[in-house]
Specification:
The complex is a heterodimer of chains A (173) and B (387). Chain A has 173 residues and is an alpha+beta fold. Helix content of chain A is 13%, strand content 28%. Chain A has a 5-stranded mixed β-barrel with strand order 6-8-9-11-10. Chain A has a 3-stranded antiparallel sheet with strand order 2-1-5, covered by helices on one side. In chain A, a hairpin with a 6-residue loop joins strand 1 and strand 2. The longest helix of chain A has 12 residues. Chain A is extended, with a radius of gyration of 23 Å. By secondary structure, chain B is α/β, with parallel strands linked by helices. Chain B has a single domain, classed as Peroxisomal Thiolase, Chain A, domain 1, CATH 3.40.47. In chain B, the strands form 2 sheets. Chain B has a 9-stranded mixed sheet with strand order 3-2-4-7-1-8-11-10-9. In chain B, strands 5-6 form a two-stranded antiparallel sheet. The two termini of chain B are 20 Å apart. The chains are: A alpha+beta (173), B alpha/beta (387). At the A-B interface, helix 1, helix 2, helix 3, strand 6 and strand 7 of A face helix 1, helix 5 and strand 5 of B. Strand 7 of chain A pairs antiparallel with strand 5 of chain B.
């Protein structure tokens, strides 16, 4: 049996205000950590192709998927992948969100557009083979699962070899 | 089989609260102290310690598991930490089971601690780095996005509505009114959920569990030792755990296959062939409202696509045929990540002993289940318990 009185005494309840106004004392710390992440061979090629305006995957002949992002091994068949394969920059929305919050839980400001990330199955990859990206050029609450979309690329001179070389996906007929 | 039977013999739980003054070590100390007192044991009686705590980023302390050992009573004892995101709490009894079932130790203290209030401005920020740094982080994803993404897919596949799913929050927050550790017990309506702030459609604020500080602990013992400690041991008769691929966009999110795999392993071990009949009370993981339903389906407590019917028919209410989250769950009791899963295990422990007080489910249950979930839509941890 849980003892309600004992449980009540385990925690001293304070509030954000108590901390903010320093009624309880705390130490502040902001880490400054820097990393250079290696991309590996597969993601390296993926990024280089994005810079050229193309999306490349790697095929697994065993499960017939074209893996995007590409990897040197198929994680489900647990074998090396086979040939490189370009896939289309068009696809289908598998699922999506209309997010009123930013990554750090702050709220989207009234004059800003809600974030509309989606999982998009690119044509040529295989069933349920999605990537995470953003949808734009449509009212957020007009987005529907199953809509057809196409990548909107940054101009060539602005591309640096990153997933955001695709600005977003727009809905196509 | 080549292992010993393992029982839970004692349990301790702190209050769950958004900002606790206590340090992580102090929270762990309180939970461990209560667990020992609950079965009249002393720290000297404990032979090994297993501890779960979620990302080090919450505390800003690397090797956080080692840092917590003092509070967990692990001084000069065999000690191991486990970590599988939100699945960590139910991984605790699984981890401890190996220590005792193997014959290596006769007793094991399993501790789960989480203090989420240390990180500013909000613990959500710590989750950015769980996503792939090259292919996903540049899009600035947040944890709520992937829950909303999964919820939208789940609703789309089964035709569930937000009104249906909101009833999980109504049920769990009401159940939590009777839980002494609860942070958010309240009487709310479906309208309250639907009218609460939209965080990321289809997720509203009241669809989400709170951020919390808190700790939990249980004591495991081998069969002969357990019977000396208590007249009412609760046996860990089935364990199962499984991780799916981290390429979470490359599978259909409407169904948690990894939970099914974990559950089936636990059922096989416990000799359960019809979970919806043989499990009498369950604590599926409910960090978001839809997650309870998603997991009920993955656990095979109903057929795919029938969890909402089960909810609407009252089957999962505390007085229903298969009560789910009678504690109040993460939505009502609170969600100090690792401690939440262990809180669920403790609820089943109390329910099977008939010691859940006002929360006691009817029907004199003899078999229950606790489950947690975590990482990138990836982890299922399941324990089946019997008295």
């Amino acid at each position: 049996m849980l003892d309600a009185n004992a449980i009540e005494k385990t925690v001293t309840k304070v509030s954000f205000k108590d901390i903010e106004q320093r009624r309880v004392l705390s130490i502040n710390y902001t880490p400054n950590l820097q990393y250079a992440w290696d991309n590996g061979l597969a993601i390296g090629r993926y990024l280089a192709e994005l810079k050229r305006g193309r999306i490349i995957g790697k095929k697994c002949r065993s499960c017939k998927r074209v893996l995007v992002p590409p990897r040197l091994f198929c994680e489900t068949c647990w074998r090396p992948t086979d040939e490189w394969a370009y896939v289309q920059d068009t696809g289908t929305i598998l699922t999506y969100v209309v997010s009123h919050v930013n990554w750090d839980a702050s709220r989207v400001k009234p004059n800003e557009r809600y974030h509309t990330p989606a999982v998009i199955e690119l044509d040529g990859t295989g069933k349920d083979q999605g990537i995470l990206h953003l949808i734009d050029e449509i009212e957020p609450y007009d987005i529907k699962i199953g809509m057809r979309v196409q990548a909107v690329w940054r101009p060539l001179e602005e591309r640096i070899g990153t997933i955001t070389d695709i600005k977003y996906f727009k809905v196509i007929k | 089989m080549g292992y010993r039977r393992v029982a839970i013999v004692g349990a301790g739980l702190t209050k769950f609260h958004r900002y606790a003054l206590e340090t992580p070590k102090e929270l762990a100390f309180e939970a461990v102290k209560m667990a020992l007192a609950s079965c009249e044991m002393e720290l000297n009686d404990i032979q090994s310690v297993c501890l779960g705590t979620a990302p080090d980023a919450f505390d800003g302390v690397h090797h956080n598991g080692e840092y917590l050992t003092d509070g967990a009573g692990a001084f000069r004892k065999p000690y191991m930490r486990h970590f599988v995101g939100g699945g960590t709490g139910v991984m605790g009894p699984i981890h401890g089971w190996f220590h005792v079932a193997s014959g290596m130790f006769d007793t094991c203290m399993v501790v789960a601690e989480e203090k989420m209030s240390s990180i500013y401005p909000h613990p959500a920020g710590a989750f950015l780095t769980i996503f792939d740094h090259t292919t996903e982080q540049p899009i600035k994803p947040t944890l709520i996005w992937i829950f909303a993404i999964e919820m939208a897919r789940f609703m789309h596949k089964h035709g569930y509505t937000k009104e249906d799913i909101a009833k999980v929050a109504v049920k769990n927050k009401k159940n939590a009114l009777d839980h002494p550790s609860a942070q958010l017990g309240s009487e709310i309506t479906v309208e309250d959920v639907l009218n609460s702030e939209v965080m990321a459609y289809p997720v509203n604020r009241l669809d989400i569990s709170p951020t919390s500080d808190g700790a939990a602990a249980i004591i495991l013992a081998s069969e002969n030792v357990a019977r000396r400690i208590t007249d009412k041991p609760v046996w860990l008769d089935g364990i199962g755990y499984c991780l799916d691929t981290a390429y979470w966009c490359n599978r259909d999110l409407y169904y948690p296959d990894y939970v099914e795999v974990a559950a089936n392993a636990a059922y096989k071990m416990a000799g359960i062939t019809e979970p919806s009949k043989q499990i009498h009370v369950a604590e599926p993981y409910d960090p978001f409202t839809y997650k309870e339903l998603h997991h009920i389906e993955g656990l095979g407590l109903c057929k795919r696509g029938e969890s909402v019917k089960m909810l609407l028919d009252g089957v999962t209410q505390r007085n229903g045929n298969l009560p789910c989250c009678p504690s109040g769950g993460a939505l009502g009791v609170g969600n100090p990540i690792a401690a939440t899963g262990l809180m669920k295990v403790i609820e089943i422990f109390l329910q099977l002993r008939g010691e859940a007080g006002k929360r006691q489910v009817s029907g004199n249950p003899t078999c229950g289940l606790a489950q947690a979930w975590g990482d990138l839509m990836q982890v299922g941890t399941v324990v089946v318990m019997r008295r």
